[in-house]
Specification:
alpha+beta; 7-stranded mixed sheet; 4 helices; 7 strands; globular
């Protein structure tokens, strides 16, 4: 399967919402959808958004948020892969793309929050858990805060386990 990463475009809105919906309620709660819609529709976001494109269309999406000072932590936002394409390397490609983009921008630390279901995936990419809040997103979905060092110590240190 050929997959490439490209910048999000307005016509990607519906396919990205379909990816979100396909991951609800396993990875996102229905109440989070308006926040995702607001992120997609906000032309003044302090970041960038990307899609993982394949022959079948949009397979996943994910973004980065930035701060004015590149030495302040930046982060990942709204990363997801359609369940039909999970555990095939799409998520890894999208995450590595975003990490490389942040490095290019001079960012040295990346923060993210995710659920207990995807925290192990990010741990294999070098992210370290710094806090866990049971039910932090809602019933059954813990919030796991993670951080990665992009100065060379954290990026690319994978455990050797299979990725989702």
């Amino acid at each position: 399967m050929t997959v490439w990463i490209r910048a999000y475009r307005e016509e990607d809105r519906a396919p990205c919402l379909a990816v979100f919906d396909a991951n609800t309620p396993a990875f996102f709660l229905p109440a989070e959808r308006p926040d995702f819609v607001a992120w997609l529709d906000d032309q003044d976001n302090p970041g960038e958004y990307f899609v993982a494109q394949g022959d079948a269309g949009v397979l996943g999406c994910g973004g980065i948020w930035l701060r004015e000072n590149p030495t302040d932590p930046a982060g990942f936002v709204w990363g997801m892969v359609h369940p039909d394409h999970q555990r095939r390397g799409v998520g890894t490609l999208l995450a590595r793309w975003r990490l490389a983009r942040l490095q290019t921008l001079g960012v040295t630390q990346v923060a993210l929050d995710t659920s207990q279901h995807t925290a192990p995936f990010y741990a294999r990419l070098g992210f370290q858990e710094v806090r866990r809040t049971p039910g932090g997103y809602g019933p059954g979905l813990d919030r796991v805060d993670m951080i990665s060092d992009l100065t060379g110590q954290g990026l690319g240190r994978e455990s050797g386990k299979d990725h989702p």
